Amino acid sequence: MSIYRPKFIDEWRDIKKEGGYKLLMKKRGKQVIIAFFLFYLIRDSILYIIIPYFGYTTLKGCF
Fold first, then answer.
1. Contacts of 8 (CB under 8 A, 6+ apart)
2. Inter-residue contact 32 to 24 (CB < 8 Å)
3. Coil, strand, or helix at residue 3?
4. Cα torsion angle, 28, 32, 35, 37, sign
5. Buried (b) or exposed (e) across 25-57, using 16+ Cβ within 10 A?
């Protein structure tokens, strides 16, 4: 077990190894979908909103 990985991820991985994605979705369906959605929401906001904003504000002063 890694100290950087939350315990629920290990639990989900064990369920997936036991019965595949079907069993994982049957046991923890809503939680997996919400976690997947939040991960990509946060990742995409950093990539497509925050980084370009800081780049724009920094380069704006050069011109």
1. 31
2. yes
3. coil
4. negative
5. eeebeeebeeeeeeeeeeeeeeeeeeeeeeeee
Q: What is the pLDDT of residues 5-59, one digit of tens each?
A: 889 999 999 999 999 999 999 999 999 999 999 999 999 999 999 999 999 999 9
Tokens 């370009």 belong to which residue? 52
Give the DSSP letter string of 12-23.
HHHHHHHHHHHH
- Straight-line distance from the first to the last Cα atom of the chain, in angstroms, rounded to the nearest whole number: 51
C-alpha angle with apex 12: 2 to 27, nearest 5 degrees?
160
The first and second tokens of residue 43, run together, are: 């990742």
Copy the structure tokens of residue 34.
């919400």
